[in-house]
């Protein structure tokens, strides 16, 4: 077509037209380059990533209408992607979202609820669970509104919790949030090491009691089994993309529901066989009021560990289709999942307390409130072990990936950091090994195992993790982001209510934190 056009124009007009259009195109590109940022072309806070976005931001909205119409026609024509180019289109609904939340929330935290209700009593125990359910829903609703910046239906998406903190609160808050998140993930690794060793011992004890009677001296140390679990995790840490394997989440979900329902069923069966409901209004009696206060604070920390899911909420919300607006669907899904989870938690905690009263064990399936059927107890603890083998990696891999990125950016020319070496093991495919990964991941797994050996206290560790994470990650950051998202003016009624809500939750979290630290120190010294 170029030859035909030049022939039609002739030797003078043809080349001249090409040069003219080249000049126009160069001028046009220069002008458009200055429109990438608004309002300042060098330091403007707004990036215009599309032609329509630049027209919309730099010209009046009525002039943007033709460009927006073109963009809309392109979106309609290509219905395989979302408004942000995500392929395939998000297809999540309120029910799939609720299923994700329930699967993520119900886990090892359910095992301590009977003990928590026993410390609080028949009135405060269930009431405390209802309060945490309400607080969790409020937190989820605030965070759901922060999924999109600006317009709740068309604004840019924040696909993760840290992305949202970075977008709304800036770099300093992002560092604080990231640090708390990694401390939380590390703590979960410690808690999972403790719980797995306890479950292995419970299987051995159940078989011993079945063979030799309930009064037999069936004592097994826990440190050895923590070391075994640590060795297994060291091996799993070097399997490429282990945490991304689809079957891992499926197995974890099936295992967590299995042992949770077994604990619920055993509690119900024991209560029925007892013929009465044990427990009291005030909970387990203690020798001094101060001891009672510490136990109550630890129980609150355990419940706080079992409920919030703020760290994964935006990732789950990023699976939802639109319309309707994702925040509306997420709020509905949160309501459904919290109602289901609270009902399940109440059943587990209350039936466990009703079955054992003041003797409710710290871990419902390993504290030997139940002796028979021993095979069912073995199966439940095997489910816990399988769940936590994969769960440890789910919580540890983000730390491994952060370390890989951090050192690669700091030392781009280091062979120790960036070079991979191929190892060949008989009967296995070739294994690519990086020296930094070997060292860092070995030290990481060894440290979580060492901390677990030093502080093998299930309830106190869960309470500490719950207290550390509850206020900053589930309350403070969502509230502060919501203020910016909705432009809530200072000292308005909504601002005062939410700040009061945040302060009250801070006091509760501090109370649980002090109690959990006291419990760890007392257990260690006692």
Notable characteristics:
2% strand, transmembrane helix, two-stranded antiparallel ribbon, Amino acid/polyamine transporter I, 2 domains, single chain, transport, two-stranded antiparallel sheet, 17 helices, mainly alpha, 526 residues, 4 strands, globular
Describe this protein's structure.
- By secondary structure, the protein is mainly alpha-helical.
- It folds into two domains: 32-77, no CATH class; 94-525, Amino acid/polyamine transporter I (Up-down Bundle), CATH 1.20.1740.10.
- 71% of the residues lie in helices and 2% in strands.
- The chain is built from 17 helices and four strands.
- The protein has helices spanning 2-33, 51-58, 61-77, 94-105, 113-144, 161-169, 171-212, 223-236, 246-274, 289-306, 310-317, 326-356, 374-410, 415-418, 435-454, 458-485, 493-525; strands at residues 37-38, 46-47, 420-423, 431-434.
- The chain has a two-stranded antiparallel ribbon with strand order 1-2.
- A hairpin with a 7-residue loop joins strand 3 and strand 4 (431-434).
- Helix 6 (161-169) packs across helix 16 (458-485) and helix 8 runs antiparallel to helix 15 (435-454).
- The radius of gyration is 29 Å and the shape is globular.
- One of its GO terms (cellular component) is membrane.
- Its main location: membrane.
């Amino acid at each position: 077509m170029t030859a035909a056009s030049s022939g039609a124009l002739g030797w003078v007009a043809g080349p001249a037209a090409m040069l003219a259009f080249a000049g126009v195109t160069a001028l046009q590109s220069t002008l458009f380059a200055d429109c990438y940022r608004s309002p300042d072309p060098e330091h403007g806070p707004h990036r215009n990533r599309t032609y329509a976005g630049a027209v919309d931001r730099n010209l009046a909205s009525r002039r943007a209408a033709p460009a927006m119409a073109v963009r809309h026609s392109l979106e309609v024509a290509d219905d395989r992607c979302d408004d942000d180019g995500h392929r395939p289109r998000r297809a999540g609904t309120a029910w799939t979202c609720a299923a994700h939340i329930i699967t993520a929330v119900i886990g090892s935290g359910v095992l301590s609820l009977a003990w928590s209700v026993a410390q609080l009593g028949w009135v405060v125990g269930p009431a405390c669970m209802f309060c945490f359910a309400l607080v969790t829903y409020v937190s989820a609703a605030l965070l759901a509104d922060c999924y999109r910046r600006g317009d709740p239906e068309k604004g840019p998406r924040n696909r993760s919790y840290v992305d949202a903190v970075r977008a709304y609160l800036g770099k300093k808050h992002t560092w604080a949030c990231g640090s708390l998140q990694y401390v939380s993930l590390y703590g979960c690794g410690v808690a999972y090491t403790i719980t797995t060793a306890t479950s292995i011992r419970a299987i051995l004890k159940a078989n011993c009691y079945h063979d030799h009677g309930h009064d037999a001296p069936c004592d097994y140390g826990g440190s050895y089994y923590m070391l075994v679990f640590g060795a297994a995790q060291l091996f799993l840490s070097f399997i490429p993309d282990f945490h991304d394997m689809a079957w891992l989440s499926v197995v974890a979900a099936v295992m967590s529901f299995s042992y949770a329902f077994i604990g619920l069923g055993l509690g119900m069966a024991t209560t029925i066989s007892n013929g009465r409901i044990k427990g009291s209004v005030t909970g387990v009696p203690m020798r001094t009021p101060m001891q009672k206060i510490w136990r109550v604070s630890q129980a609150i920390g355990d419940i706080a560990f079992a409920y919030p899911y703020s760290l994964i909420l935006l990732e789950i919300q990023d699976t939802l289709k639109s319309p309707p607006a994702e925040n509306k669907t997420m709020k509905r899904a949160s309501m459904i999942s919290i109602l289901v989870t609270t009902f399940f938690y109440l059943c587990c905690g209350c039936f466990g307390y009703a079955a054992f009263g003041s003797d409710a064990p710290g871990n419902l399936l390993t504290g030997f409130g139940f002796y028979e059927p021993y095979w069912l107890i073995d199966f439940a603890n095997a489910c816990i072990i399988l769940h936590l083998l994969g769960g440890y990696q789910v919580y540890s891999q983000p730390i491994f990936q952060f370390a890989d990125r951090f050192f690669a950016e700091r030392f781009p020319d280091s062979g120790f950091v960036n070079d991979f070496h191929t190892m060949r093991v008989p009967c296995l495919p070739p294994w690519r090994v990086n020296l930094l990964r070997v060292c860092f991941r070995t030290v990481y797994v060894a440290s979580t195992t060492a901390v677990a050996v030093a502080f093998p206290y299930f309830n106190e560790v869960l309470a500490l993790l719950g207290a550390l994470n509850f206020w900053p990650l589930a309350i403070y950051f969502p509230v502060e982001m919501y203020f910016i998202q909705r432009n809530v003016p200072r000292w308005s009624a909504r601002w005062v209510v939410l700040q009061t809500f945040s302060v009250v939750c801070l006091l509760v979290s501090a109370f649980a934190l002090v109690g959990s630290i006291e419990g760890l120190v007392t257990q260690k010294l006692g």
